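#struct-help
A.M.: can someone run this one for me? Single chain, 176 residues.
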Amino acid sequence: MTQLDLMANDAAAQTIIFKGAPSQVVNAAAIFKGVAAIVVILAATLYASGQRWQVPWAIPVIAVLVVMAGVGIACLRTAFTEIIIDTERITLRQGIFNKRISSLELFRIQDLTSYHPWWQRAFNVGTIVVMTSDSNNPVWRLNGIVDAEAMRAALNHAAIALRDRKGIREVNMGRV
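D.P.: on it. Structure tokens below:
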């Protein structure tokens, strides 16, 4: 068998646990701040015109466009993020113009925490924080995961199963 055949067999044996983009709910705070900023800009413009101050029309328009661009970029970053979790690894693809692809082998997972901010809880969305033994990326944050608690449990189960299947044991050196 060639190396390519081995890779194809390994890929076929992997089961995808999750594949998708984070929920846009994570951008609710940015959207709320953007709407509040636009309201402030419009209120300031109306106040200034009521005081008979000359405010060129382009200034509030440019300010509103800058705020909308900031909110749009936050939403685009989320839309152009892809998370793939299979039985072997987590792959994170990010970037609008420049792509950054990172992967983490599941056997490197040391601890998993799911975090559910109050404003995301209503939409059943949360963040999974992954503590790893990877020295370059010791903490991974998977934002905007729907049903994050169930995903955390599935990810923990897959990491333990992979360690058992490969015969890998974790050894803590230093502070425990």
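A.M.: thanks! Residues 28-50 form the longest helix (23 residues).
D.P.: also worth noting: The chain has two domains: 28-76, 85-166.
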